[in-house]
């Protein structure tokens, strides 16, 4: 099932379609008529529940900084999925959707966790540092996340318990693989 804040076809970050941001996975998705049809009719995010999923994957693009990062339904879903002992992965800008999520004790969900996301250097390279509402790297650090990264545009994925984060578009496939490994039971640890 695919879900988005408003349901239907979600707005896509036009930069995501640029050749430099394409991966084998995105090209395969865009060539799949069934996948495109599913994307055109996403469920409303506020109509889904954590129990509807074995795992949740948040793709990147700049959009999550404006909608998913501020959407109460998104925050509830993230918190509920992890508390239910199910894995979640967020890639590129999507780790910004963790900014309001909290652990059961009320602390920021990312505090003390190994996390990554779109770097300040990558944001500067695309010329949007002054446009985005916040920088993912700075926000994850501000919240107490144990943020790390690799070189710009290189794949980099971290798994901390059931939380998987990927640095950039090149990290999407590896993050999906890490998520699937957790679903298969290869991973364990704190929710």
Produce the secondary structure layout.
Blueprint: E1 3-4, H1 24-30, H2 33-40, E2 43-44, E3 56-58, H3 72-83, E4 88-91, E5 114-115, H4 120-125, H5 136-142, E6 146-147, E7 157-160, E8 163-166, H6 172-183
Parallel strand pairs: 1-2, 3-4, 4-8, 5-6
Antiparallel strand pairs: 7-8
What does this structure look like?
27% of the residues lie in helices and 12% in strands. The chain is an alpha/beta fold. The protein has a domain at 54-183: Rossmann fold (3-Layer(aba) Sandwich), CATH 3.40.50.880. The strands form three sheets. It has a four-stranded mixed sheet with strand order 3-4-8-7. Strands 1-2 form a two-stranded parallel sheet.
In brief, what are we looking at here?
The protein has six helices and eight strands.
Could you give a short account of the major beta sheet?
A: 4 strands, mixed
Shape: globular
The number of helical segments is 6
Low-confidence stretches: none
CATH architecture heading of the domain at 54-183: 3-Layer(aba) Sandwich
Query: Would you tell me the overall average pLDDT?
Result: 93
CATH superfamily (homologous) name of the domain at 54-183: Class I glutamine amidotransferase (GATase) domain
Q: What is the first-to-last residue Cα distance?
A: 22 Å
Percent of residues in helical segments? Answer: 25-40%
Strand order of the largest sheet: 3-4-8-7
Structural descriptors:
191 residues, 8 strands, 6 helices, globular, four-stranded mixed sheet, alpha/beta, Rossmann fold, 27% helix
């Amino acid at each position: 099932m695919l879900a988005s804040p408003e349901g239907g076809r979600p707005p896509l970050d036009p930069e995501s379609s640029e050749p430099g941001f394409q991966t084998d996975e995105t090209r395969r998705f865009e060539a799949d008529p069934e996948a495109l049809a599913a994307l055109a009719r996403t469920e409303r995010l506020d109509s889904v529940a954590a129990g509807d999923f074995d795992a949740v994957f948040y793709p990147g693009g700049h959009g999550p900084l404006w909608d998913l990062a501020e959407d109460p339904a998104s925050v509830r879903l993230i918190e509920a999925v992890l508390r239910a002992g199910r894995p979640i992965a967020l890639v590129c800008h999507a780790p910004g959707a963790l900014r309001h999520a909290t652990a059961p004790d009320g602390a920021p969900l990312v505090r003390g966790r190994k996390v990554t996301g779109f770097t300040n250097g990558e944001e500067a390279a695309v010329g949007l540092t002054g446009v985005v509402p916040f920088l993912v790297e700075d926000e994850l650090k501000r919240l107490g996340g144990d943020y790390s990264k690799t070189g710009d545009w290189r794949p980099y994925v971290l798994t901390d318990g059931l939380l998987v984060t990927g640095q950039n578009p090149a990290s999407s496939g590896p993050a999906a693989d890490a998520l699937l490994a957790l679903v298969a039971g290869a991973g364990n640890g704190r929710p």
